[in-house]
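Hi R.,

Here's the chain you asked about this morning:
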Amino acid sequence: MQVSHKIVPYWQKTEVHMEQNKKKSMKLSGKIKWICALAVFSLAAVLFTAGTMILRKELKINPIFARKYEIHGVDVSHYQGTIDWETLSQQGLDFAIIKATEGSTHIDDRFDENWQAAEQTHLYLGAYHFFSFDSEGDRQAASYIETVGSLEGKLAPVVDVEYYGTKRSNPPERAEVIKKLKDLLDTLEQHYQIKPIIYTTFTVYNEYIKGEFEGYPLWVRSIYCPPAVLFGNKWSFWQYMDTAMLEGYVGDQKYIDVNVFNGNREDLEELVIQKTECMNADNEKTQ
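And the predicted structure, written out as tokens:
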């Protein structure tokens, strides 16, 4: 028996192969799309989880970025209770900024004790004032000057400007705040012959500081991300974490704020007050 073989033209074979390849390509493309979609979903889930953990302070990324800075320090108040300054200072620290006053009448309960004990260490020291939106600026400056006294050999005075109480939900009027803050800063600068350092948060910076007090050294709070994200390069000090735990203090607060300085030791020296008493004496003689 003879079997007849149908001869398929070459062009038809090519079309069949192309159709088969097309189907394979479509199946592969579908698989790739599913894989990509799954990868995107997984990445989004990871980022969401990481973001949530960062906001909850369960995942701390700032210490990684802070390591590259040479100068490290802390800021303290009565919340840290009794401080063993010798122990605290030996934990990789270069400076400490201590709360002195708040508003026009309040003095931190631990200021004198902390100030005197910290002077016995190698640390660069600074004293900060917590700004009140409800007190006149010159009165606040007078309280700080009377409490702290001479800052010769110490860092420039620091003014902490941040919301408290109901101020976040009911922000004070911008012009009024700027006037009070300007009076405070001008009085401190005239007395200590150096521009004060302004500590602030991102919200308060944008509401009151930005565009008004650009010439002042800026100490920024940015505990969830590096400061460049929020402030660019307009900062001198960075408070990168408020949940650090160090040895050497026993108080109501188990955590302590940690900071870095954006520069080297020579740069920090430029913020140290020199021969204040002599300058004040000279000013008095010329009056």
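The radius of gyration is 30 Å.

Let me know if you need anything else.
M.
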